Amino acid sequence: MSDVLHPLTGAPIKLGRTLVRRNGASRLRASLMHDFLVSLPEAPEVFDNTSSILDWGMMDNDKLGDCTEAAKGHLVQAWTAASGKEVTLSDSVIEKAYETECGYVSGDSSTDNGGDILTVLQDWQQNGLGGYSITSHAEVNRTQMRIQQAAWIFGGLDLGINLPIAAQNQVGSVWDIINGEVDGDGAAGSWGGHSVAAVAYDQNGITVVTWGALQRATWRWFMWYCDEAHCLMSPDWKSPAGIPSAELVGALQQVGS
Asked: Would the pTM of this model clear 0.70, i.e. be above it?
C-alpha cells in the first residue's frame, strides 16, 4: 500500500498485487501461447490501443489495494473504446470483484490486502466482470518481441510489476532506470507489487494505465521490474486480420482457467 499522491491527479495511489502465483495449468497455457506466437510474424513497431480515452478512472485504486481489479477495468475500457463504444465499469463492480476474488470486506481495512493476478483472471474467465468476459488467458514470455506480439494481437496485457521506491518520483512521467541503479531505492519490489494494463508500445518503451492515467516505461525498466505478463482473450476485441487465434483459444480452454 502507499501514501504517495499522483502528481497529475493529486489523488492517493495504492498498490496491491501480491506474489506471483503459477500452477501446472498456467504453465501449460504459457507454453501453448509461446508456440502460437513464435509461428507468427513480428508485430508492428508501434501499437496504440488508448483510443483517445480521456478519463480512465481510478477504479478505487486510490482508496483500496485493488490494482488487480483496476487493471481489468482499464482493459475493458481499451477493448470497448476500440470498437467505438467505450465502457467504463462502475467502482461498485470493481469493488465487488475485489471482495469476491481477494477477500476484501467492504469497510474493513484489515482485509484490504491485495491479490494475485492468476486468481483474479481465473474468476474473470469463470464468472465475468460487470457483464464482460474473457474466453481464456495465458502468460507471455517477457521479451520485447513477444510482449509486442501479444499486446497487438489481443489488444493489451495485464502486467505484474515489482515497483522500486525510485519509481515514486517518476509517476506521471517515465519509469526508467537512472544511472543503472537497481539497488537501494531502485531495488525491485522495494515499493511493492502492482498490476497495470499495458495498452500501447513503441520502440522506446511501453505505455500502461494505472491510477487513472497513462504511464510510460522504457523497455529496459520493463525488463527489470516486470515479472508476469498475461494476455487475455476478449470477445470485445477483434484481433488483427489473418491471425488464427480461434484454435489457440480452444486449446487454452481445454487446459482450463
From this structure: yes
Task: Give the span between the Cα atoms of 89 and 96, in whole angstroms.
Answer: 11
**Cα 208–Cα 90–Cα 134 angle in degrees, nearest 5:** 60
Beta carbons of 13 and 4 less than 8 angstroms apart: yes
- Phi, psi (degrees; rounded to nearest 5) at 4: -70, 145
Give the tens place of pLDDT for each residue, 11-31: 889 999 999 999 999 999 999
pLDDT in tens, 107-132: 999 999 999 999 999 999 999 999 99
Measure the CA–CA gap between 198 and 49, rounded to whole angstroms.
9
For 11, phi and psi rounded to 5 degrees?
-85, 150
Closest listed residue to residue 137, CA positions, set 149, 152, 120: 120
Q: Give residue for cell 478505487.
A: 60
Q: Which residues of 125-135 are buried (b: 16+ CB within 10 A; e: fewer)?
A: beeebbebbbb
CA distance 232 to 133: 10
Which residues lie across from 115 on neighbouring strands? 17
